[in-house]
Amino acid sequence: MEKYEQLLNMLMDFNKNIRFGAVCSPQGELLWNTKREGVKNIVPYDDTKQTIQRAMDAWKENNKITDNVGSGLYSITSYEKIKRISVPLDDGNMLFLSINNENPSKTKTKSYGNVAEMGKILSVVDFVKSKK
Prior knowledge:
A 5-stranded antiparallel beta sheet has the order 2-1-5-4-3, sandwiched between helices. Helix 1 packs antiparallel against helix 6. The protein is built from 6 helices and 5 strands; from the N terminus they run H-E-E-H-H-E-E-E-H-H-H. It is of the alpha+beta class.
């Protein structure tokens, strides 16, 4: 199984809030993607591809300050309905996730950030990276 397929499958299995996942090349080309079965797109696919390209461009721009702040770990953009998460991978590739953004009072968590479960997402990313 290709490592990006494995990464997305593992993420989709552990976090039921993930709606869509993709791994993109440094040029914004989709290398692998998946969508949760039964989930209706909130954002049209072409708009999602444009968002991915903007996220790639933002990471490239932010990499200009890594000497000062260190390497980026992840970025979350939160909207009322979804969160968009980007995580840099090896070789300039990027993981892009779209996650449900439910109100904490409905999920019984203390903050919106708990819905994303970034610690678990990064653990899966690190596990797959280590398998080479």
